[in-house]
Specification:
- Two copies of one chain form a homodimer.
- Chain A is globular.
- In chain A, the strands form four sheets. Chain A has an eight-stranded parallel beta barrel with strand order 1-2-3-4-9-10-11-15, surrounded by six helices. In chain A, strands 5-6 form a two-stranded antiparallel sheet.
- The longest helix of chain A has 21 residues, at 155-175.
- The first copy, chain A, has 448 residues and is of the alpha/beta class.
- The first copy, chain A, has a single domain (7-289, 370-446), classed as Luciferase-like domain (TIM Barrel, Alpha-Beta Barrel).
- Chain A has helices spanning 37-50, 72-76, 90-95, 113-126, 141-144, 155-175, 232-241, 252-268, 290-303, 306-317, 340-346, 355-363, 374-388, 402-417, 428-433, 441-446; strands spanning 7-12, 54-57, 101-107, 131-136, 182-185, 190-192, 202-203, 208-209, 224-227, 244-246, 277-286, 329-331, 352-354, 369-372, 392-396.
- Chains A and B meet through α1, α2, α3, α4 and β6 of A and α1, α2, α3, α4 and β6 of B.
- Chains A, B: GO terms for molecular function: monooxygenase activity; oxidoreductase activity, acting on paired donors, with incorporation or reduction of molecular oxygen.
Chain lengths: 448, 448
């Protein structure tokens, strides 16, 4: 029986420390070279050679200021601060590669769909159809304050905006220009056929956009849509729009349950559940022997900054754990779970935790990190996929680029030997869904 | 006596036809390859080798729909439609060059200063301090309709918004991060010194932005500010903010008068008038002999589309010339002159024109185009500079890349022999204002 191929994305951020707490002090870490485009080009080339599917650029802006009521900790450890624009890294990396995909992150709460549709069309053109779009709704208060709001917009309202935002984008991408509109007819002096370019005339609750789209159709038209929502509104949004979901879950059982829930909702929305691919974040430390891998793990653990991790957790959960009695109990509810870390708890049966337990858990290095030989890691990745129904992983780096290079050099060849590496095709959507499937059927349907 | 060096920028747009009407049909034109990043990299390398100062990316979005009350003409001739995002072209071109500057265009009416400040900081980092920002206020009705407005915002209000917009950006770029904030102090576990990163706490009429800036200081902090306003509010804005002005004027006398007017206003705002450099658009057709240059001109003229030029003129002036009696008279007034083409007339004593005169003038190929041998063109450029006090030119292309390559290969060596080529330095601002002047003193002052 042919084994299901596994998709690997590298998760990265355009900042000083990546997604790694305290490891910037490790002598091998080069993430602070993020302003040198060659840093990114080197990584993109390496993961393309290694068989990765895509480079996924997360984004976060605002200085997390919930922990101790101040942004001081986040700033001190450069915890996702500063944070540069991710999209601008893509054209150079695309130029240096041939079939690697690139996903970038956009906030539907603080951008306008006109600009986003235009930027993504431009990127899809420049990359020849290798673009994905990660849709986020920006729930952080310190982000809201950049835009004149003292409080973030309420959760369900953000998703309602996001829904209309994507609807506008789909109309621009899918419904404004017919195929064949660009004639380039020198003899008859017709460059573009005006009869095939249409206003979208969108009149919604949030946006009014006349159109037509200012970009001609790009190879994929609509970028591959990524989403990571875990609340009810978030899962509904994913089921309606996403082609790739960044699934949450602290246990494999929880991941499996979330996958089933999203696929079920997708069917409710008239979609084929197989048209949504499921990704989970994964970190791995690999070495030729288990002893070396363990040693590497212990070394990294010594650089780990628990306080940096706490600043992030408090910022995203909204709870200042430093201000609470360590023996008090935190209870997570589904409606509060509008962000990733806290949401990971909601899928477990026990939703209450002592504050000290949470602090210890957040500060600890190692939860979910795979440590071992190439064979160990490959075994474990295969079993995770087989157990949960996941389609792939977003690999998180610990020390950049070391973690990435070691994974590419040691784990990917092992997975390749096992027939588990997904083949890349010319567009990102074809790589994910098969030759000839460049076009986003779901977006096209929702644009009507 | 040392001759004043002349700065040359190439004016370009990320679209199918550049700024050229009908020339897309010429067999040498390759502008429709705009979605291939190599098209841009080749041009950037060529003009860097040739001694240009910068590549200037204009921008326009919306389908011009005033002419005949429809966007049909603009679409048919691909007249600045489609129009892709210009900023995304810059990182790859910067990677392929070492000291060429890059200016991009941003609308302060339809973007938020947070996003713009972040994007420009990212670009200034990625280019190592080679970024300029062309500020426009987007007066076109078809653009307004992408953002839910049936009418564009009134002219003076747009400039008031632009003024506060730049004020927010200056605070983020100049006042949020002190020098030395990035410590990268491994021993003491301090990556960034929180005491040196400040909120901007901007509370204005239009924007409320708490800060701090999410980007660390880039080599120039504030990009070199370009502006092209020609109305009274526009000239005031330029005098207050601009470091480079795109001066209007149909005659050299008008150009000279506009330069004097802006420099005078700059003094009123407490600036050194020499801190503003003046650029004028220029097109040239060069060949080894005058006969060949003339032949080239005639050939290009045969491809010229008068109707495409009319669609642009009507879109920007707001007058549908096709709907007016050709014998009626158009009178331009300063308050109406909130855009470039019509504004060119306001500096002349006679402000009234027969409609047919305007139609003929707009449709004609050749106004202001220099045609001749390298010596002819160099002579004329030198005399224009000496006569008007201009500091440089924005070169417009006719057939891309032919026009550019011929200018670089033939005119630039001639100007170099005459000691007229400005030397490039490592940052864009140093190239324009001298070694050691990377920092924007005006922005820094206005940020306080």
């Amino acid at each position: 029986m042919l084994k299901k191929p596994i998709f690997f994305n590298l998760f990265e951020m355009n900042n000083r420390t990546g997604d790694s707490h305290g490891l910037w002090r490790h002598p091998d870490s080069r993430h602070h070279e993020y302003n040198d485009i060659n840093f990114w080009v080197t990584i993109a080339r390496k993961i393309e050679e290694g068989g990765f599917t895509a480079l996924f650029l997360g984004d976060f802006f605002g200085a997390s200021d919930v922990y101790k009521g101040s942004p001081e900790t986040a700033i001190r450890y450069a915890m996702q601060f500063p944070s540069n624009d991710p999209s601008l890294l893509i054209p150079s990396m695309a130029q240096a590669t041939t079939s690697l995909g690139f996903a970038t992150t956009i906030s539907t709460t603080y951008e306008h769909p006109f600009h986003v549709a235009r930027r993504l069309s431009t990127l899809d053109h420049l990359t020849n159809g290798r673009i994905g779009l990660n849709v986020v709704t920006s729930y952080i208060a310190s982000t809201a304050r950049y835009f004149g709001l003292s409080e973030p917009i309420a959760h369900d309202r953000r998703y309602a905006i996001a829904d209309e935002f994507l609807s506008v984008c789909y109309k621009l991408w899918e419904a404004s220009w017919e195929d064949g509109a660009v004639k380039f007819d020198v003899a008859n002096n017709i460059h573009i056929d005006p009869a095939r370019v249409h206003d979208i005339s969108h009149q919604g609750d949030v946006f009014k956009v006349a159109g037509p789209h200012v970009c001609e159709p790009s190879p994929q038209r609509t970028p591959v849509i990524f989403q990571a929502g875990s609340s009810k509104a978030g899962r509904d949004f994913a089921a309606r729009h996403a082609e790739c979901v960044f699934v949450q879950g602290r246990t494999l059982a929880a991941v499996k349950e979330n996958i089933a829930s999203i696929r079920k909702r997708a069917v409710d929305f008239g979609r084929d559940p197989g048209d949504i691919l499921m990704f989970h974040q994964q970190t791995a430390i690999v070495a030729p022997t288990r002893a070396e891998a363990r040693e590497q793990f212990e070394e990294y653990a010594r650089y780990r900054s628990a306080e940096s991790a706490l600043a992030q957790y408090c910022g995203s959960s909204g709870y200042d754990l430093a201000a609470l009695d360590p023996d008090s109990v935190l209870t997570y509810t589904a409606t509060e779970a509008n962000q990733s870390r806290a949401a990971q708890y909601t899928t477990q049966s026990d939703r209450s935790f002592r504050v000290q337990e949470v602090i210890d858990d957040v500060g600890r290095f190692g939860a979910g990190i795979l440590v071992g030989t190439p064979v160990d890691i490959a075994d474990r990745l295969e079993s995770i996929v087989d157990e949960t129904g996941l389609d792939g992983f977003n690999l998180n780096s610990i020390v950049t680029p070391t973690t990435i290079f070691e994974f590419v050099d040691q784990v990917m060849p092992e997975l390749r030997n096992r027939g588990r590496i997904a083949e890349r095709r010319s567009t990102f959507r074809e790589t994910l869904f098969g030759q000839g499937r460049s076009h986003a059927e779901n977006a096209s349907r929702l644009a009507r």
